Fold this protein.
Amino acid sequence: MLLRRKPKKRNLTVLLTVLALVAMAAVYTSLVDWNGKETGSPNVAATNGAVTPELKPNPESKEPTIPSEQTDIVIIGSELEGLYLARAAVDEGLKVKVLDTREAFGGQVLQGEMLFLDETRDDARRLLVQGRAKELFDGFRNGKIRKLGEFEQYFDKLIQGIPVEQGIRIDSVEQLPGQFGAHTVGALQYTTKDGQKKRIESSYWVENTDYAAMASKLEVNRLAGLEKFYGQNEIEYMSSGMMMKFKNVDWTKFQQHFKSLTIQERNKKYGYGQVDHSYAIGLTGITNRYQSTNDRVFLRGLNAVHQRDGEVIINAFLIYTVDPSDDQSVAEAMELGKKEIPLILDHFRSSIVGWENAELNGFPNYLYIREYNHYETDYVLKPSDMLGAKMFWDNVSIGGYPLDLQGTSANKWGIEMGRPDKYGMPLRSFLLKNYDNVIMAGKNVGASAIAFGSARIQPNTGLAAESIGVILGQIQGKKKLRELREADMPALQDYLASKYAIQLTGVTGNNKIAGWTAEEIAKLDTGEIVYAQYVKKRQ
């Protein structure tokens, strides 16, 4: 019997040894992801402003290797404001790439055709627009940049030499422990428009979409929106706009007729408003007489610009309860607009002199999205900052514009909460809270729902983005963005002034809440006090 047992014992020993080796191999393999990176290893490689995983090829892996690249800055989205950051950073010597989650390039301006530009001016009507945006706004004002093709040429110049990938889908965002905060973004995996899988590492990431395509995938804190101000239970954003495009308008006849009327005649026919050689503003007597066919749409006062040659584009048509992150919601809103705008044209043709032969000039490809979620940044701008003309040690923009809350389903006309003179916008309002290397561009600025009414305007956030792009170039290889302190900023702001004529210091504004109590200021910030109404009572 012993002779029969010994072979069994040896066989069992051999079998157990083999199984142990297989198990050890499996444990090792589990530490290596399908890109050959050791996920269980703490080994990382640091880049400027971010910590990214060190790639280790796995020669035994049978999975396909995803193409990977490295860059200094990745811009997610092609809204105008983030492109200012991209251009400035490239001109300062950095490597930048734009990844756009939308099918077509240019966002609000080129796809939404929001070609009526809102300037920022102070109480004395002095222009506050600075930086690269000044060329655009000057061109718009003097009539040289009015039509879509002219805006496209401006964008082409802005992104010259900057690689853009259109129509990508973000598959995953690789997050690691941060050096200064809880997190840093190391890399992003995405699928291209033609289905190719790719991976990109970057020192900095810029959220530049109108629906927080990347930031919404991070560990963010959503700030209360207008639903709190209006006492609603459900989240609702400012109304979206659909630009109305017309042709064959006799603008000269329109303007001359308007000017020929007495004030009483104008008020009776057109209501509040004005018309000159380029713009028609308000005309609420005309718009108020239009009855919408759907409760979700509304025609407010006009912001109309004559683009030349009888072509006119108007910002006045509002669509409520649109979710910019939901493609179906956007598509439904577009269909509502395409049904309603021809009826508005009929109303204009029968109501406005010079519009008798007007025709539709097509529809934009996309909506004008005003607002999405607000996420917490290192500093969240408040109405009191703006009306108090507050300036910050880390100013990256000088802003101005009324606290203009466009309508929602709860208040279709919207409300103006006050008119600041001018105010500073700090770098900290563009740095996503708890992330080392995520920058919030454009409408993603850190502002309360009420303060956002002013902060959102393009010259405000566009200048901030450009300033940040320059700063990133200047600190490359020296400091990371979150290492900047008050003592570092004067030299950077002086450089912006001397090389780019961007003035961020030595600016003072009219403090319109001087002498207010802490309780009054707190109520202003929550919206319990509407400045324009309250200030009259306070006097």
